Structures are given as C-alpha cells and as structure tokens.
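Good morning C.,

I know you're traveling, so I'll keep this short. The sequence:
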Amino acid sequence: MVHAKGHDTLSPPNWPEGITYLTKPRLPPTFPPQLIPLISPNANTNSKTFHIKPIKHPSNVHIKRIDRDGHPAKGQCGLFAKSKIKGGELIIPYIGMIHSTIIPDDLDQVLPEQEDEHSSSDYDLSLLRLSSSDIRNPFPGMHVSIGVDAARMGNAARFVNDYRGLPGITGPNAEFRLGSGESGELRMEIWSLKCGVGKGEEIRVSYGKGWWGARKG
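The tokens, ready to paste straight into the viewer:
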C-alpha cells in the first residue's frame, strides 16, 4: 500500500502512481455552491466539503493487472472478486471528482469556458441532469449537468472494465446504478447482477453503446 501526497488514506495494493486515492468525493473550487444541496444535503456549502463517512476499500475485491492475451485491457488493471459475490449486492461506490456544466438553452451562445472538459474522459459518469425548466434548477434558463470523473482521482471502482471484447464472455456480471450513501449523498454505485460474480472473476459492466459510439474512429 502507498500513502502518497494527496491520498485520503493508504491506497490498496496495485494502485497506480499518479492517481489520487479517495475515500469520499471531492469538489473543485469552481463548483457552484448552489448545486451542492442537490448532491449532498448535509454538505457544507461554504467549505465545499462532504460530511460523510469515508468509504473503505471492500475486502472482497482487489485490483489486478491484466496479462491475459486477447483481453482489450491487457497491460492495464481490472477489478476482481477475491471471494464469491452474490447477485444483487452493492460491490463498491464509484468515487471521483464531482463537476458541473451549466450551459444556456441556446447552444449557439455556449462560451469556450462553459464546455465540458470531462466529456472526453473514459472515467466520467453522469449523476444528475436538470433541464432549464426543472423546479430544482437554481439557474433559470440554463441546462445543468453534474458528473463524477475518476480519471485523476478515485477509488477501486475506476478499474471496472466493460465486458465487450472479452474472450468467452457474452455479457456483464455487474451494472452501474444511481444510489445514495449513508448521509443521503447522491452517488454512482456498482452492483452485481442476478448471476453474481465468482471467486477470481473479473467484475464486468456495460459502458453503454453511447460510450463506445463516442470513441469510434
């Protein structure tokens, strides 16, 4: 384990250098305080910190380097089950940097600084989208998107791979679900499917056709 500068705590085995290990999400300094109550009702809007319990690395999963020939992520890492995981169980929350994009109804008026810098990230997941007419939206006339990006900081959930292209595999054994933590904070989670995950098996999800379509070519 490595306790490097910037990490929340000791990182789990096989954690890569250059990625900050988190036990709870972080907010950038530019995150609008008006949006914080939408994702964490107990958060401190002044300090932009989450008053939630740190999320420990699950004891039944581990990060493992993939050396299998034919695996699309060979040479990279995946998340594997250390023991059998039953169907319908929360495996791990997905933690990262929570960010927002606020753009006007008229897309022709979007300024460069309003463009989503996380849109090209392979580790970015959507948490909440608000239309300009949504009563919860604190920015009238604007579209609001909130996401969580684990490209540069996160937990072991960032290593979950897509099932596509895996030799002999026809589908996922886990899925992304929108959920909430003990303190009511909005978060993305990874749950096992009905089939469960066998001991030593890689945890596999579907990134969705949209994810792959955006990366063709």
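Safe travels,
E.
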